[in-house]
């Protein structure tokens, strides 16, 4: 594992088995709210005990963002996860639709919680989009103190990274709603100081709703941002022959896992060295990964926005990005999600992986399940060849390493075909087999 994220396929399977509840969760990587001229949305936060939710007064708002923290015993097994979510959802009677849902694992049953951030929009003229997301610190440097700013910075940056990919690149248009907790007031005070320092450094608006009061360490956030462009998520307009570009190499996160394993047991360091993988190199790669995870790069949002039509204006496939999708800890499995959204066959001819020999070693020794789990800056872009060439030139000016990795094949069945051996970087052959098997698109409705 390179993160404590609930496996997206397990979450989706569990949600599919949840029946007859007023809360409907349809996991997406963002929620595309509109930006209403001159009006700010109202956010109402509610935090619940996941196992025994107490609903004092329901919020009469139809849409919400969510974060779930789920005990490993349920979160790694779809039937148990479905049962836990069913039990939680049945306490509600008001109808709520959730698209952006983050689910993180915990080893402590008492640390479980469910958070709903209800967002109410006012009526008015639509002048753009205000996409909203949630994130949690699912990968961090556990050798740092519990109140180190690294942990909260990663949660904030993760949300910003997602919004940047949607074309939100002006820091002053962002607003963060931190989600955090700790076992003592001293640590909580330090976390608040870290949040203030982060948002001040990047000129970000923040609204603090106080801690979760579970008395267990947690870092996350909800976030909104504004763009006056159309969103680059036209999955239904992805066409055969379009190309797929990755903005940076896959991978990077395995170094964090290998470094941590080395700190936990010196025998692992000996094993690394015997296989020609220096611990010094792992430590340097770990530092690079943590730096990437904790420092937002708004230039990505500005570059994406450059290749999106202005809000309300027509899309031109010869001038604009057709679709984007974040890679993150899912690595190559993000290709599967993209294939499903585009209902297309993706032919992947290249598989560039950061720290390739280290990644192969981690996979071969079953130290990391998915060595393509990626740090920030790694995203999938689908467009015509000319658009990708222009975008690549812009990305290269800002320390990205874009590369065309394949093309879109026939429509009608979602699958991913690799020309190179992806098994060098994914330990689970069963999961890899599912990725490369055709998935027929389900009828709407």
Question: Secondary structure elements and their pairing?
Answer:
Elements lengths: L7 H9 L6 E6 L2 E6 L5 E7 L14 E9 H4 L2 H12 L6 E11 L6 E8 L5 E11 L12 H17 L9 E7 L3 H17 L3 E2 L11 E7 L18 E4 L7 H11 L1 H9 L4 H16 L4 H8 L16 E4 L6 H10 L1 E5 L7 H9 L14 E5 L1 H12 L6 E9 L1 E6 L10 H7 L3 E2 L5
Parallel strand pairs: 1-5, 4-5, 8-9, 13-16
Antiparallel strand pairs: 2-7, 3-6, 4-6, 7-10, 8-10, 11-14, 11-15, 12-14, 13-15, 16-17
Write out key terms for the chains shown.
globular; alpha+beta; Phosphoribosyl-aminoimidazole Synthetase, Chain A, domain 2; five-stranded mixed sheet; seven-stranded mixed sheet; disordered C terminus; single chain; 32% helix; 2 domains; 445 residues
């Amino acid at each position: 594992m390179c993160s404590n994220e609930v496996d997206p396929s397990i979450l989706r399977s569990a949600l599919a088995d949840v029946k007859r509840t007023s809360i409907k969760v349809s996991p997406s990587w963002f929620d595309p709210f509109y930006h209403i001229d001159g009006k700010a949305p109202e956010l109402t936060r509610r935090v619940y005990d996941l196992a025994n939710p107490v609903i004092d007064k329901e919020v009469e708002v139809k849409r919400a963002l969510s974060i779930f923290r789920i005990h490993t015993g349920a979160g790694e097994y779809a039937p148990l996860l479905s049962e836990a979510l069913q039990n939680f959802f049945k306490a509600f009677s008001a109808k709520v639709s959730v698209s952006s849902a983050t689910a993180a694992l915990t080893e402590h049953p008492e640390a479980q919680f469910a958070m709903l951030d209800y967002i109410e929009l006012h009526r008015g003229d639509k002048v753009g989009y205000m996409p909203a997301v949630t994130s949690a610190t699912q990968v961090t440097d556990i050798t740092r103190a519990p109140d180190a700013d690294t942990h909260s910075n990663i949660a904030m940056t993760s949300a910003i990274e997602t919004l940047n990919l949607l074309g939100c690149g002006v820091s002053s248009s962002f607003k963060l709603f931190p989600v955090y907790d700790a076992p003592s007031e001293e640590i909580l005070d330090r976390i608040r100081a870290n949040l203030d320092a982060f948002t001040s450094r990047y000129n970000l608006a923040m609204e603090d709703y106080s801690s979760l009061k579970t008395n267990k360490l947690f870092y996350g956030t909800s976030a909104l941002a504004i763009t006056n462009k159309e969103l680059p998520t036209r999955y239904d307009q992805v066409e055969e022959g379009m190309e797929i570009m990755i903005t940076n190499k896959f991978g990077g996160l395995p170094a964090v896992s290998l470094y941590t394993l080395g700190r936990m047991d010196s025998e692992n360091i000996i094993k690394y060295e015997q296989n020609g993988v220096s611990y010094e190199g792992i430590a340097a790669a770990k530092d690079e990964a943590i730096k990437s995870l904790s420092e937002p790069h708004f230039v990505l949002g500005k570059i994406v926005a450059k290749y999106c039509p202005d809000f309300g204006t027509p899309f031109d496939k010869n001038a604009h990005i057709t679709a984007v999708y974040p890679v993150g800890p899912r690595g190559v499995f993000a290709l599967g999600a993209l294939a499903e959204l585009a209902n297309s066959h993706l032919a992947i001819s290249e598989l560039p992986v950061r720290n390739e020999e280290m990644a192969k070693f981690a996979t071969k020794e079953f130290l990391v399940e998915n060595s393509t789990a990626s740090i920030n800056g790694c995203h999938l872009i689908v467009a015509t060849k000319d658009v990708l060439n222009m975008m690549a030139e812009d990305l290269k000016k800002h320390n990205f390493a874009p590369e065309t990795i394949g093309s879109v094949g026939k429509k009608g069945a979602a699958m991913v075909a690799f020309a190179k051996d992806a098994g060098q970087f994914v330990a689970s052959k069963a999961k890899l087999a599912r990725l490369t098997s055709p998935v027929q698109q389900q009828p709407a409705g």
